[in-house]
Amino acid sequence: MKRTLLIKIENLNSIESKLKKAAVILRKGGTVAFPTETVYGLGADAFNPDAVKKIFKAKNRPFDDPLIVHIADLKDLNLLTPRIPRKAKLIIDNFWPGPITLVLKKRKSLPDITTGGLPTVAVRMPAHKIALELIKLSQTPIAAPSANLFGKPSPTSAKHVIEDLYGKIDAIIDAGDTKIGVESTVVDLTVDPPAILRPGGITREQLEKVVGKVKVLGKDKLSKDLAKKSPGTKYRHYAPKAKLILVVGEKKKVRQKIKQLLLLHKRKKIGILPTSRDFDYQIGLVKFAGQSQKAVARRLFAIFREFDKEGVDLILAEGVEEKGLGLAILNRMKKAAHKIIHV
Protein backbone atom coordinates (compact mmCIF):
# COMPACT_ATOMS: atom_id res chain seq x y z
CA MET A 1 0.00 0.00 0.00
CA LYS A 2 1.23 3.50 -0.87
CA ARG A 3 1.99 5.81 2.06
CA THR A 4 -0.42 8.74 1.84
CA LEU A 5 0.72 12.01 3.39
CA LEU A 6 -2.03 13.76 5.39
CA ILE A 7 -1.77 17.56 5.50
CA LYS A 8 -4.13 19.15 8.03
CA ILE A 9 -4.94 22.85 7.56
CA GLU A 10 -6.94 24.65 10.24
CA ASN A 11 -5.82 28.24 9.68
CA LEU A 12 -6.30 29.60 6.15
CA ASN A 13 -4.07 32.60 6.89
CA SER A 14 -0.83 30.58 6.84
CA ILE A 15 -1.18 27.87 4.24
CA GLU A 16 1.79 28.34 1.90
CA SER A 17 4.30 26.47 4.08
CA LYS A 18 1.95 23.47 4.43
CA LEU A 19 1.11 23.38 0.74
CA LYS A 20 4.71 23.42 -0.50
CA LYS A 21 5.08 19.67 0.07
CA ALA A 22 1.89 18.98 -1.87
CA ALA A 23 3.03 21.26 -4.72
CA VAL A 24 6.35 19.40 -4.95
CA ILE A 25 4.46 16.10 -5.17
CA LEU A 26 2.38 17.47 -8.06
CA ARG A 27 5.42 18.86 -9.88
CA LYS A 28 7.10 15.44 -9.59
CA GLY A 29 4.14 13.66 -11.15
CA GLY A 30 2.25 12.63 -8.01
CA THR A 31 -1.40 12.84 -6.98
CA VAL A 32 -2.88 15.11 -4.30
CA ALA A 33 -6.45 15.36 -3.01
CA PHE A 34 -7.44 18.93 -2.15
CA PRO A 35 -10.56 20.89 -1.17
CA THR A 36 -12.52 23.17 -3.45
CA GLU A 37 -15.72 25.06 -2.71
CA THR A 38 -17.73 22.26 -4.38
CA VAL A 39 -16.22 18.87 -3.44
CA TYR A 40 -12.70 17.52 -2.83
CA GLY A 41 -10.71 16.96 -6.03
CA LEU A 42 -7.92 14.50 -6.87
CA GLY A 43 -5.24 16.45 -8.70
CA ALA A 44 -2.28 15.80 -10.98
CA ASP A 45 -0.28 17.89 -13.46
CA ALA A 46 -2.65 18.29 -16.42
CA PHE A 47 0.28 18.28 -18.89
CA ASN A 48 1.91 15.11 -17.51
CA PRO A 49 0.14 12.08 -19.04
CA ASP A 50 1.81 9.61 -16.66
CA ALA A 51 0.63 11.67 -13.66
CA VAL A 52 -2.91 11.96 -15.03
CA LYS A 53 -3.00 8.19 -15.59
CA LYS A 54 -2.51 7.75 -11.82
CA ILE A 55 -5.81 9.59 -11.22
CA PHE A 56 -7.71 7.10 -13.37
CA LYS A 57 -6.00 4.13 -11.70
CA ALA A 58 -6.58 5.36 -8.15
CA LYS A 59 -10.27 6.06 -8.80
CA ASN A 60 -10.83 3.04 -11.09
CA ARG A 61 -12.24 5.58 -13.54
CA PRO A 62 -12.85 4.85 -17.26
CA PHE A 63 -10.25 6.57 -19.44
CA ASP A 64 -12.89 8.05 -21.77
CA ASP A 65 -14.39 10.14 -18.94
CA PRO A 66 -12.79 13.61 -19.31
CA LEU A 67 -11.24 15.50 -16.40
CA ILE A 68 -11.69 19.14 -15.41
CA VAL A 69 -8.53 21.23 -15.55
CA HIS A 70 -8.19 23.75 -12.70
CA ILE A 71 -6.31 27.03 -13.05
CA ALA A 72 -5.47 29.89 -10.70
CA ASP A 73 -4.58 32.59 -13.23
CA LEU A 74 -6.54 33.68 -16.32
CA LYS A 75 -3.27 33.70 -18.28
CA ASP A 76 -3.21 29.90 -17.98
CA LEU A 77 -6.33 29.68 -20.15
CA ASN A 78 -4.04 30.40 -23.10
CA LEU A 79 -2.16 27.17 -22.33
CA LEU A 80 -5.36 25.17 -22.67
CA THR A 81 -7.40 26.76 -25.46
CA PRO A 82 -6.61 28.76 -28.61
CA ARG A 83 -9.80 30.84 -28.38
CA ILE A 84 -12.06 32.23 -25.67
CA PRO A 85 -15.56 33.00 -27.07
CA ARG A 86 -17.32 36.22 -26.08
CA LYS A 87 -19.91 34.43 -23.95
CA ALA A 88 -17.14 32.53 -22.18
CA LYS A 89 -15.53 35.87 -21.28
CA LEU A 90 -18.87 37.07 -19.86
CA ILE A 91 -19.15 33.95 -17.69
CA ILE A 92 -15.55 34.34 -16.52
CA ASP A 93 -16.10 38.00 -15.63
CA ASN A 94 -19.23 37.19 -13.61
CA PHE A 95 -18.56 33.79 -12.04
CA TRP A 96 -14.82 33.08 -11.79
CA PRO A 97 -13.38 32.11 -9.42
CA GLY A 98 -16.40 29.91 -8.75
CA PRO A 99 -18.30 26.66 -9.26
CA ILE A 100 -18.59 26.76 -13.05
CA THR A 101 -16.60 24.84 -15.66
CA LEU A 102 -16.29 25.95 -19.30
CA VAL A 103 -15.98 23.49 -22.18
CA LEU A 104 -13.74 25.06 -24.85
CA LYS A 105 -11.67 24.00 -27.87
CA LYS A 106 -8.41 22.51 -26.58
CA ARG A 107 -4.82 23.07 -27.62
CA LYS A 108 -3.05 20.05 -29.14
CA SER A 109 -0.32 20.35 -26.50
CA LEU A 110 -2.76 19.17 -23.82
CA PRO A 111 -2.52 15.36 -23.51
CA ASP A 112 -5.49 13.38 -24.80
CA ILE A 113 -5.70 11.42 -21.53
CA THR A 114 -6.63 14.64 -19.71
CA THR A 115 -9.58 15.32 -22.02
CA GLY A 116 -10.82 11.77 -22.56
CA GLY A 117 -9.55 11.86 -26.15
CA LEU A 118 -11.86 14.77 -27.00
CA PRO A 119 -10.99 17.92 -29.00
CA THR A 120 -12.36 20.01 -26.11
CA VAL A 121 -11.15 20.82 -22.61
CA ALA A 122 -13.22 21.43 -19.47
CA VAL A 123 -11.63 24.17 -17.36
CA ARG A 124 -12.49 26.15 -14.23
CA MET A 125 -10.99 28.45 -11.62
CA PRO A 126 -12.06 27.28 -8.13
CA ALA A 127 -13.12 29.73 -5.43
CA HIS A 128 -11.16 28.16 -2.59
CA LYS A 129 -8.02 29.69 -1.10
CA ILE A 130 -6.25 26.36 -0.67
CA ALA A 131 -7.03 25.15 -4.19
CA LEU A 132 -5.85 28.41 -5.76
CA GLU A 133 -2.66 28.54 -3.71
CA LEU A 134 -1.85 24.90 -4.47
CA ILE A 135 -2.23 25.47 -8.22
CA LYS A 136 -0.03 28.57 -8.05
CA LEU A 137 2.70 26.77 -6.09
CA SER A 138 2.54 23.79 -8.48
CA GLN A 139 3.17 26.14 -11.43
CA THR A 140 0.92 24.17 -13.77
CA PRO A 141 -2.79 23.66 -14.41
CA ILE A 142 -4.13 20.76 -12.33
CA ALA A 143 -6.42 18.07 -13.74
CA ALA A 144 -8.81 17.00 -10.99
CA PRO A 145 -12.01 14.95 -10.88
CA SER A 146 -13.71 14.33 -7.53
CA ALA A 147 -11.48 12.51 -5.02
CA ASN A 148 -13.54 9.35 -4.60
CA LEU A 149 -13.74 5.86 -6.02
CA PHE A 150 -15.51 5.99 -9.36
CA GLY A 151 -19.30 5.84 -9.04
CA LYS A 152 -19.43 6.48 -5.29
CA PRO A 153 -20.85 9.65 -3.69
CA SER A 154 -18.50 12.59 -4.15
CA PRO A 155 -16.37 13.58 -1.12
CA THR A 156 -17.37 16.70 0.79
CA SER A 157 -14.82 16.19 3.57
CA ALA A 158 -11.29 14.80 3.84
CA LYS A 159 -12.58 11.80 5.82
CA HIS A 160 -14.56 10.76 2.72
CA VAL A 161 -11.35 10.93 0.67
CA ILE A 162 -9.51 8.87 3.28
CA GLU A 163 -12.28 6.23 3.21
CA ASP A 164 -11.94 5.82 -0.56
CA LEU A 165 -8.37 6.64 -1.53
CA TYR A 166 -5.98 6.36 1.44
CA GLY A 167 -3.04 4.23 0.34
CA LYS A 168 -3.80 4.82 -3.34
CA ILE A 169 -2.66 8.45 -3.72
CA ASP A 170 0.32 10.48 -2.53
CA ALA A 171 -1.28 13.15 -0.32
CA ILE A 172 -4.57 14.41 1.09
CA ILE A 173 -5.07 18.02 2.19
CA ASP A 174 -7.64 18.20 5.00
CA ALA A 175 -9.37 21.57 5.34
CA GLY A 176 -12.76 20.50 6.69
CA ASP A 177 -16.09 20.32 4.90
CA THR A 178 -16.79 21.90 1.52
CA LYS A 179 -19.33 24.72 1.27
CA ILE A 180 -21.44 23.84 -1.77
CA GLY A 181 -21.48 20.04 -1.75
CA VAL A 182 -22.31 19.36 -5.42
CA GLU A 183 -19.87 19.66 -8.28
CA SER A 184 -19.48 22.63 -10.59
CA THR A 185 -21.87 23.50 -13.39
CA VAL A 186 -20.39 22.40 -16.72
CA VAL A 187 -21.38 24.63 -19.65
CA ASP A 188 -20.38 23.99 -23.26
CA LEU A 189 -19.25 27.15 -25.06
CA THR A 190 -18.46 25.37 -28.33
CA VAL A 191 -22.18 25.41 -29.18
CA ASP A 192 -24.62 28.31 -29.47
CA PRO A 193 -26.67 28.83 -27.43
CA PRO A 194 -24.41 27.55 -24.62
CA ALA A 195 -25.47 24.20 -23.17
CA ILE A 196 -25.36 23.10 -19.52
CA LEU A 197 -24.04 19.55 -19.68
CA ARG A 198 -24.02 19.08 -15.90
CA PRO A 199 -25.97 21.38 -13.55
CA GLY A 200 -24.12 22.52 -10.45
CA GLY A 201 -23.30 25.41 -8.16
CA ILE A 202 -24.17 28.13 -10.71
CA THR A 203 -27.79 27.85 -11.80
CA ARG A 204 -29.36 28.12 -15.24
CA GLU A 205 -31.19 31.25 -14.07
CA GLN A 206 -27.92 32.92 -13.04
CA LEU A 207 -26.29 32.07 -16.36
CA GLU A 208 -29.17 33.34 -18.47
CA LYS A 209 -28.98 36.74 -16.78
CA VAL A 210 -25.43 37.03 -18.14
CA VAL A 211 -25.37 35.31 -21.54
CA GLY A 212 -29.03 35.03 -22.55
CA LYS A 213 -30.62 31.73 -23.60
CA VAL A 214 -28.97 28.59 -22.22
CA LYS A 215 -30.05 25.03 -22.97
CA VAL A 216 -29.81 22.08 -20.56
CA LEU A 217 -28.81 18.56 -21.57
CA GLY A 218 -31.64 16.17 -20.78
CA LYS A 219 -34.28 18.91 -20.58
CA ASP A 220 -33.98 20.66 -23.95
CA LYS A 221 -33.49 19.26 -27.43
CA LEU A 222 -29.76 18.62 -27.57
CA SER A 223 -27.60 15.89 -29.05
CA LYS A 224 -26.81 13.18 -26.52
CA ASP A 225 -23.25 13.23 -27.90
CA LEU A 226 -22.68 16.45 -25.93
CA ALA A 227 -22.66 14.36 -22.75
CA LYS A 228 -19.25 12.98 -23.76
CA LYS A 229 -17.68 16.41 -23.18
CA SER A 230 -18.47 16.52 -19.45
CA PRO A 231 -17.62 14.37 -16.44
CA GLY A 232 -20.59 13.08 -14.48
CA THR A 233 -22.83 12.55 -17.51
CA LYS A 234 -21.79 9.37 -19.30
CA TYR A 235 -21.85 6.82 -16.48
CA ARG A 236 -23.79 6.10 -13.28
CA HIS A 237 -22.34 8.32 -10.56
CA TYR A 238 -22.75 9.43 -6.95
CA ALA A 239 -24.38 6.14 -5.88
CA PRO A 240 -24.48 4.76 -2.32
CA LYS A 241 -24.11 1.01 -1.75
CA ALA A 242 -27.82 0.65 -0.94
CA LYS A 243 -30.35 0.75 -3.77
CA LEU A 244 -31.89 4.20 -3.98
CA ILE A 245 -35.49 4.75 -5.08
CA LEU A 246 -36.20 8.37 -5.98
CA VAL A 247 -39.83 9.52 -5.86
CA VAL A 248 -40.64 12.76 -7.69
CA GLY A 249 -43.85 14.74 -8.06
CA GLU A 250 -46.27 16.72 -5.89
CA LYS A 251 -45.11 16.53 -2.26
CA LYS A 252 -48.27 14.98 -0.79
CA LYS A 253 -48.29 12.23 -3.43
CA VAL A 254 -44.54 11.66 -3.00
CA ARG A 255 -44.97 11.03 0.72
CA GLN A 256 -47.96 8.75 0.20
CA LYS A 257 -45.89 6.69 -2.25
CA ILE A 258 -42.92 6.48 0.13
CA LYS A 259 -45.24 5.24 2.91
CA GLN A 260 -46.51 2.54 0.54
CA LEU A 261 -42.92 1.55 -0.27
CA LEU A 262 -42.08 1.41 3.45
CA LEU A 263 -44.82 -1.15 3.97
CA LEU A 264 -43.85 -3.08 0.84
CA HIS A 265 -40.22 -3.35 1.98
CA LYS A 266 -40.82 -3.54 5.75
CA ARG A 267 -38.45 -6.49 6.19
CA LYS A 268 -35.54 -4.43 4.91
CA LYS A 269 -33.47 -1.83 6.75
CA ILE A 270 -34.65 1.38 5.10
CA GLY A 271 -33.22 4.88 5.02
CA ILE A 272 -35.46 7.85 4.22
CA LEU A 273 -34.25 11.15 2.79
CA PRO A 274 -36.94 13.86 3.12
CA THR A 275 -36.21 17.26 1.59
CA SER A 276 -38.47 19.40 3.81
CA ARG A 277 -39.01 19.35 7.55
CA ASP A 278 -42.74 18.52 7.79
CA PHE A 279 -42.36 14.76 7.27
CA ASP A 280 -44.29 12.23 9.38
CA TYR A 281 -42.63 8.91 8.58
CA GLN A 282 -43.14 6.49 11.48
CA ILE A 283 -40.67 3.80 10.41
CA GLY A 284 -37.29 3.82 8.74
CA LEU A 285 -34.06 5.66 9.47
CA VAL A 286 -34.72 9.31 8.59
CA LYS A 287 -31.88 11.69 7.73
CA PHE A 288 -33.10 15.21 7.02
CA ALA A 289 -30.78 17.10 4.69
CA GLY A 290 -32.06 20.63 5.35
CA GLN A 291 -34.86 23.05 4.59
CA SER A 292 -33.11 25.06 1.87
CA GLN A 293 -31.71 23.93 -1.48
CA LYS A 294 -28.24 25.02 -0.33
CA ALA A 295 -28.50 22.84 2.77
CA VAL A 296 -29.68 19.81 0.78
CA ALA A 297 -26.85 20.24 -1.75
CA ARG A 298 -24.26 20.57 1.01
CA ARG A 299 -25.42 17.43 2.84
CA LEU A 300 -26.61 15.11 0.05
CA PHE A 301 -23.43 13.10 -0.59
CA ALA A 302 -22.53 12.97 3.10
CA ILE A 303 -25.96 11.50 3.88
CA PHE A 304 -25.51 8.83 1.20
CA ARG A 305 -22.27 7.83 2.92
CA GLU A 306 -23.92 7.90 6.36
CA PHE A 307 -26.61 5.50 5.13
CA ASP A 308 -23.84 3.20 3.89
CA LYS A 309 -22.25 3.19 7.34
CA GLU A 310 -25.64 2.41 8.91
CA GLY A 311 -25.91 -0.61 6.61
CA VAL A 312 -29.30 0.21 5.13
CA ASP A 313 -30.59 -2.01 2.32
CA LEU A 314 -32.78 0.58 0.61
CA ILE A 315 -32.95 4.39 0.50
CA LEU A 316 -36.23 6.15 -0.27
CA ALA A 317 -35.60 9.75 -1.33
CA GLU A 318 -37.97 12.63 -1.95
CA GLY A 319 -37.30 14.64 -5.10
CA VAL A 320 -36.89 18.41 -5.10
CA GLU A 321 -38.28 21.13 -7.34
CA GLU A 322 -36.20 21.29 -10.51
CA LYS A 323 -35.46 25.02 -10.27
CA GLY A 324 -32.38 26.93 -9.17
CA LEU A 325 -29.94 24.68 -7.31
CA GLY A 326 -32.68 22.03 -7.31
CA LEU A 327 -31.74 21.20 -10.91
CA ALA A 328 -28.29 20.07 -9.72
CA ILE A 329 -29.65 18.25 -6.66
CA LEU A 330 -32.18 16.27 -8.67
CA ASN A 331 -29.54 15.52 -11.31
CA ARG A 332 -27.31 13.92 -8.65
CA MET A 333 -30.24 12.00 -7.15
CA LYS A 334 -31.26 10.65 -10.57
CA LYS A 335 -27.68 9.62 -11.35
CA ALA A 336 -27.48 7.75 -8.04
CA ALA A 337 -30.95 6.16 -8.28
CA HIS A 338 -31.60 2.49 -8.94
CA LYS A 339 -35.20 3.40 -9.77
CA ILE A 340 -37.15 6.64 -10.34
CA ILE A 341 -40.89 6.79 -9.63
CA HIS A 342 -43.02 9.70 -10.90
CA VAL A 343 -46.27 10.34 -9.03
What is this structure, in a nutshell?
This protein has 343 residues and is of the alpha/beta class. It is built from 10 helices and 16 strands.
Quick check: average pLDDT? 93
Major pleated sheet: 11 strands, mixed
CATH architecture of the largest domain: Alpha-Beta Complex
Model regions low in confidence, pLDDT < 50 over at least 5 residues: none
Order of helices and strands: EHEEHEHHEEHEHEEEHEEHEEHEHE
CATH C-level name of the largest domain: Alpha Beta
**Oligomeric composition of the shown chains:** single chain
Helical content stands at: 25-40%
Strand content: 15-25%
Mind telling me the CATH superfamily name of the largest domain?
DHBP synthase
The overall number of domains is 2
Q: Name the shape in a single word.
A: globular
